[in-house]
UniProtKB/TrEMBL annotation:
The family this protein is said to belong to: Belongs to the class I-like SAM-binding methyltransferase superfamily. TRM61 family.
Keyword entries, A-Z: Methyltransferase, Nucleus, S-adenosyl-L-methionine, Transferase, tRNA processing
PROSITE patterns with a match to the protein in the record: SAM_TRM61
The protein's name: tRNA (adenine(58)-N(1))-methyltransferase catalytic subunit TRMT61A
Record's function text: Catalytic subunit of tRNA (adenine-N(1)-)-methyltransferase, which catalyzes the formation of N(1)-methyladenine at position 58 (m1A58) in initiator methionyl-tRNA.
Organism (species): Clunio marinus
Length: 315
């Protein structure tokens, strides 16, 4: 039940995040035994770069606490969508937190929202939708890959989210969404190779008083085709954006103190000479808090296209 509500004590069956460092985390299921490669149940020991953890020992411990590994220690955290995105088993390419933040904001995902998503993929985005819309909302998520559908169903159930999500096996481009979803959705999100083929079905699924759409596409050609279809189908406020996360490094820097009186009275040559001398033999410096732009720009993930379907009376 580890995703459903805040929890103080770790219970058998929980999914926990074993946090060693920001770049070294593991999502593990708390259970006493595990099947080995010969199909025999054996004691569950999880291996890390700082040695082994007997997983059974986590039961009854407090979330946020420190646990001993055979060659070090780690912290055990209750998972949230952000931690899950960084540790989930990849069955497909996934969406990450920077893009997802904008999707949640633009689709106005909130408690009570009815949201349709296709494809489910690895369920990275689905976990954020579920956190935003439960307990009164519902997520309907579709994928045409049968085993991904089964894995996602199993995962949501294990995470205590099963009551707030319906996972269905369906090709939404050729068959649309299911009939009972006609006119019920507040928002529809598509992460598909050809989202433009499903826009007619999106119109049918959105509420009669309108709703929001978002499509994620890595290539501009997919985005262009989606925009054309959105316009043809009466969508307004069509907007495409790219989210580039740029983290600035904040650090103290020691910079030379400039004697302004000296600068005022001396000739340019003298000032240059003094600067050169100071480089060889630094004089007085001052500590200043600075921000440094990141050494590398993060790469492109995809284009997010948002649009509004107006109420039926205005279409
Ligand atoms: C990139 S993944 C989605 C990843 C997901 N957004 C996440 O964050 O984990 C795309 C998924 O769409 C599914 N898909 C592609 N075309 C589809 C279609 N026509 N109908 C339903 N699912 C489709 C694929 O099987 C795949 O699982």
């Amino acid at each position: 039940m580890s995703f459903a509500a805040p929890q103080r004590i770790i219970a058998e069956g929980d999914i926990v995040i074993l946090y060693i460092s920001i770049n070294n985390m593991h999502a593990i299921e708390v259970k006493k035994q595990i099947m080995n490669k010969h199909g025999i149940l054996v004691e569950y020991t999880h291996q890390t770069t700082y040695g082994a953890l007997k997983v059974e020992n986590l039961i009854g411990k407090e979330y946020g606490g420190k646990v001993e590994l055979s060659r070090g220690y780690a912290y055990v955290l209750q998972p949230n969508p952000e931690l899950w995105t960084n540790n989930l088993p990849h069955r497909t390419q996934i969406l990450y937190t920077p893009d997802i933040s904008m999707i949640l904001l633009q689709l106005e995902a909130k408690p009570g929202s009815i949201i349709i998503e296709a494809g489910t993929g690895s369920g990275s985005l689905s976990h954020y939708f579920l956190r935003a819309i439960k307990e009164t909302g519902h997520l309907y998520t579709f994928d045409f890959h049968e085993s991904r559908v089964e894995q996602a169903k199993e995962e949501f159930k294990k995470h205590g989210l099963g009551d707030f999500v319906t996972v269905q096996h369906r090709d939404v481009c050729s068959d649309g969404f299911t009939e009972e979803l006609t006119g019920v959705a507040d928002a529809v999100f598509l992460d598909l190779p050809a989202p433009y083929l499903a826009i007619g079905h999106v119109v049918k699924a959105l509420k009669l008083n309108g709703g929001r759409f978002c499509g994620f596409s890595p290539c501009i050609e997919q985005t262009q085709a989606t925009c054309v279809e959105l316009e043809k189908n009466g969508f307004l406020e069509i907007q495409t954006m790219e989210i580039i996360q740029s983290e600035h490094i904040v650090k103290d820097k020691h910079i030379p103190v400039i004697d302004l009186e000296f600068v005022k009275t001396k000739r340019e040559d003298d000032i240059l000479q003094t600067a050169k001398d100071q480089k060889k033999q630094p004089g007085k410096t001052k500590k200043v808090l600075t921000t440094i732009p990141p050494p590398m720009q993060p790469g492109h993930s995809g284009y997010l296209t948002f649009a509004t379907l107006p109420p039926l009376s205005m279409r």
